[in-house]
Write a structure and sequence with these properties.
About 35% of the residues are buried. Helix content is about 65%, strand content about 0%. It is mainly alpha-helical and about 350 residues long. The structure holds benzoyl coenzyme A (BYC).
Length: about 350
């Protein structure tokens, strides 16, 4: 597909509200009344579009969440990219390559969705490269063996799906629309990972040990992906009221554990948690205490791979500068030839 045509489609998808909306109907209304009407629209499950009036705090929350999500996709390409050249077969290589490429695409949709809120992509990327923006804690752990690619697909993408399916119903239209497509692709990613884990756990004793080792290392960081406990979560109350989030961090974490533990048992693997036990009455798997000290270390830049990930992103930005310059020059040349 022609690149400019593709960009045009993306712009239309994510800026539908901008293109379609009439003037701001809330001009001249008292602030409290504006807020009341805004919340009433949210409560009525209406989507908020880019040119609709919205409280500043709602806009800032979305810019924070969507940009962190976009950065996570792009940084998330690094630990998996590490294994593309060493995938054990052509089939595995092609699937991993497609998955990593999808993640680049998810980053693109998400940066485009965040741009509808009035921040530029350059600004967001500058925040990431300067170390001022967060991205998911999970991508600061190393991929030491091929089984880690299976564990990432099964656990990390599984956790991502659990967190992101409710975001398809997020009150902000461009984010909700971006998430629908992303979730479809995440589902392929999760199956790709589980299938790797299944093959390894049904393979030789050495392969099964690799799968077990990967589960041991990725289980707890996957639970941390859902964020701090509800007691500690600073943003959840507002985000739930505004229907940006539909479930709390702890609710989603529990749903993930309940869905994933039987999958691990099907693989014949053991979870690295002596406190994991089924509680038949509410029908939940109870799990042990999360090491929040480790989570805080990762968030403050002191995880196993934080420095390496940022260095890689900075190098990619510098090495890719000529591509951006060439694309801009190409665009300018063509707009001179065929004015709109
Ligand atoms: N890692 O008040 P809270 C993926 C931060 S992409 C780092 O609960 P909130 C994938 C939080 O940002 C996965 N930081 O916040 C990609 C906040 O800090 P600030 C990314 C975290 O927003 C490629 C502070 O802690 N998914 O899966 O209500 C390949 C307090 O937290 C984390 C998304 O971004 C964390 N794990 O809830 C494969 C989805 N957790 O901003 C897979 C969209 C919390 O005040 N985001 N923090 O400095 C969300 O759903 C929510 O933002 C979160 C946090 C549940 C992550």
């Amino acid at each position: 597909m022609d690149f400019r045509f593709f960009c045009d489609i993306l712009e239309r998808m994510y800026t539908q509200g901008l293109l379609d909306s009439k003037s701001d109907s809330s001009v001249g209304i008292e602030p409290e009344e504006r807020l009341r009407r805004f919340q009433a629209r949210i409560d009525a499950e209406e989507k908020i579009e880019p040119t609709d009036w919205m409280p500043d705090a709602y806009r800032r929350t979305l810019i924070r969440m969507i940009s962190q999500h976009a950065h996570s996709e792009v940084v998330g390409m690094l630990p998996e990219g590490n294994w593309i050249t060493r995938a054990p077969s052509l089939r595995r290589k092609a699937a991993l390559l497609a998955k990593v490429q999808d993640e680049g695409g998810h980053g693109l949709y998400l940066y485009a969705a965040a741009e509808t809120l009035g921040i530029s992509r350059e600004e967001m990327i500058e925040q990431l490269l300067a170390g001022r923006a967060k991205y998911s804690s999970i991508f600061n752990y190393p991929t030491l063996s091929w089984a880690d690619i299976g564990a990432i697909g099964w656990l990390v993408d599984g956790a991502a799906i659990m967190n992101q399916i409710p975001l398809c119903r997020c009150s902000y239209g461009p984010y909700a629309r971006a998430m629908i497509r992303i979730c479809k692709e995440e589902s392929f990613h999760q199956r790709q990972g589980y299938e790797i884990m299944l093959t390894l756990s049904r393979g030789t004793a050495q392969q099964k040990a690799m799968a077990q080792d990967a589960l041991d290392r990725w289980w707890w960081p996957s639970l941390m992906m859902f964020g701090p406990s509800d007691k500690e979560s600073q943003h959840s109350d507002n985000s739930l009221r505004w229907k940006i989030k539909r479930f709390s961090n702890d609710e989603l974490r529990q749903k993930f554990v309940d869905a994933t533990v039987p999958q691990g048992h099907h693989l014949g693997l053991a979870f690295p948690d002596p406190d994991l036990a089924y509680d038949a009455q509410p029908g939940h798997w109870r799990f042990g205490a999360i090491n929040w000290g480790e989570f805080r270390d990762v968030l403050t830049g002191n995880g196993p791979c934080n420095r390496q990930r940022l260095q890689q992103r900075r190098a990619a930005d510098e090495q890719g500068a000529w591509v951006r310059e060439a694309a801009i020059a190409y665009g300018e040349k063509h707009s001179r030839r065929s004015p709109p």
